[in-house]
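Sat 14:20. Reprocessing the chain from the morning session after the first attempt stalled halfway. Input below, unchanged.
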Amino acid sequence: MKDLLAIRLRRRQALQTLATAAAGTAAAPHLAKAADAPRPPRPPLDPDLLNPEVPWTKVLSAEELKTLSALCDLILPADAHSPSASAVGVPAFIDEWVSAPYPTQQADNATIRGGLSWLNTESVRRFGHPFAAASAREQQVLCDDIADLRKAKGRLRVGAIFFQRLKQLTADGFYTTIEGMKDIQYVGNVPSATFDGPPPAVLKHLKLT
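Finished this time. Tokens:
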């Protein structure tokens, strides 16, 4: 009796397996057609991370980008170790950032575009020409006045708020490039045959030895 029951159970399982396979085979042409069908465009708020693209239009004007480039290069100029911020595309990164349709980026849009306008107005007021046309000394003097948000007073406070945020965005853009990572000697994201652990000096500093 037990043997007969076991045979029936195995037969039932076999029939269920065959039925499942047949259903899958019958559905295969329909699944293939669905896969080949054109997909609707992805909305800006749902990016395809496997095939990245920028689905929004960049908003900064040519004049704004000119001012931005001059300012980014003042923040991170070229030196013996690495190129300038503009040479590795930081202004384009910031343009893409402030053009994005997200709350944080839209807030930065107002800060950055308003700040660029303020900077040019202040440069014309002081020196008679826009910031990008100012001499290196004039640019430095103006930026020194807005470099410290804690000390900026009156109309300079607007510029200081802008400059503080721009310095952060410039650093973010620069140090996530290959050139920027080389500048700080970042060695992550590369294969390593061995792992020697932290240097003894680091362990001593952290009081782990």
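Residues 62-74+85-183 form one domain.
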